[in-house]
Design a protein that fits this description.
single chain; 373 residues; globular; mainly alpha; 0% strand
């Protein structure tokens, strides 16, 4: 930024911001672990953590101390360099994603004109870390998990980026702060409801959250690429997951829900802007946890087919419609009507994709019964 937030040298100012973000990331991740356990406990008619500290508030602290104290083991035949650096290649890109997150006006680590492009670039690097963790572990299940994680991330990266492109076309910029400030009157979700839904679904897949948690599913690959990791190295994957959850929630609120500006963020000052960001991110986090509690895990063929056959064509259609409306200067409500029509089509295609395998299995079982009789 041209002027330091703390009135210091720009490099020293940036360093202070990074240290604040590191502290924020650690505290938020530990808090999210506790919150998710409590919310899932309510959904599943359980109580969640309650014995470690008042209301179980120290459970995350106890987990952190346990992981720090655990012995750091490595398989005998594991590739030492690949195994050791795999967690860093997953964790560091997630940490870099905090650089462009707009928490409130004037408070970013840095405001970049190509902020969206930067975020996509650094977040994609974590794919290399998943593959390194699987390959370096000398474990077939870990390798399968790494390959599935890479295939899933690459597949859902396409509708993810196309949804970002839809928002950039509408606002005419790749600067996340300018996108936020352009929503002072109407948030982008009003004009781009289909892009919001596609982006949210693709974000779940990018985070490896249910129902897209096949790469780390115990019933699939015994824990995924980090099945051989223990102690502090395993906790880096775990910390990265919850830090990503927070980053993605802030990003979605900035791109589609008005971020720190809508409503009344410019009139009521910086304190209210922080409240807006926290409330919107919290609602999105709750929605993501709700999906985890409600939706069963997909099969690998369903997961890949859903990205390539449903989300990708619809996200391409959204980009084409945006271009048509902007080129011929059509009224903006056209985008809203078409977007809700696209959501209806997406719902119908999703239901059809789910019911079709069930019908195929039912017919196969009926044929087997006839043959046996």
């Amino acid at each position: 930024m041209p002027e330091g937030l703390f009135g210091l040298n720009p490099w020293l100012d940036g360093l202070i911001r990074l240290l604040l973000i590191v502290g924020l990331m650690t505290v938020v991740a530990m808090g999210l672990i506790y919150i998710e356990r409590k919310v899932l406990g309510r959904f599943h008619a359980r109580v969640g953590p309650q014995r470690t500290g008042p209301f179980g508030l120290l459970q995350s602290v106890a987990d952190a101390l346990k992981l720090i104290g655990k012995e750091d083991l490595r398989p005998r035949n594991a590739d030492p360099w690949t195994f050791e650096f795999g967690p860093y290649m997953v964790f560091i890109p997630i940490f870099l994603g905090f650089v462009v997150q707009p928490f409130m006006a004037g408070f970013n680590v840095r405001v970049l004109d190509l902020g969206i492009l930067y975020f996509v670039a650094v977040s994609s690097v974590s794919i290399v870390g998943w593959v390194m963790a699987g390959w370096g572990s000398d474990n077939r299940y870990a390798m399968i998990g790494g390959m599935r994680a890479a295939a899933q991330a690459i597949s859902y990266e396409l509708p993810f980026v196309l949804s970002l492109l839809s928002v950039s076309m509408l606002t005419g910029t790749l600067n996340i702060n300018q996108i936020v400030e352009g929503q002072a009157v109407v948030p982008n979700i009003v004009w781009q409801p289909l892009a919001f839904v596609i982006f949210f679904i693709a974000a779940l897949a990018e985070l490896n959250r249910p129902p897209f948690d096949i790469p780390v599913g115990e019933s699939e690959v015994v824990g995924g690429p980090f099945v051989e990791y223990s102690g502090i190295r395993w906790s880096m994957f775990f910390l990265g997951e919850y830090a990503s959850l927070f980053i993605m929630s802030v990003l979605i609120s900035a791109l589609f829900l008005g971020g720190y500006v809508w409503p009344f963020g410019t009139e009521l000052g910086v304190g209210f802007q922080l409240v807006l960001t926290v409330i919107k991110a919290a609602l999105l986090i709750f929605l993501i946890i709700w999906v985890r509690a409600s939706v069963p895990r997909l099969r690998i063929d369903q997961l890949m087919g859903y990205a390539w056959k449903i989300l990708l064509p619809l996200s391409l259609a959204q980009v084409l419609i945006n271009g048509f409306v902007l080129t011929y200067h059509l009224p903006m409500p056209v985008l809203t009507v078409v977007g809700f029509g696209g959501i209806f089509l997406l719902s119908w295609l999703t239901e059809r994709a789910i019911r079709k395998p069930r019908a195929a299995r039912a017919s196969a079982i009926a044929l087997q019964s006839e043959a046996a009789s």
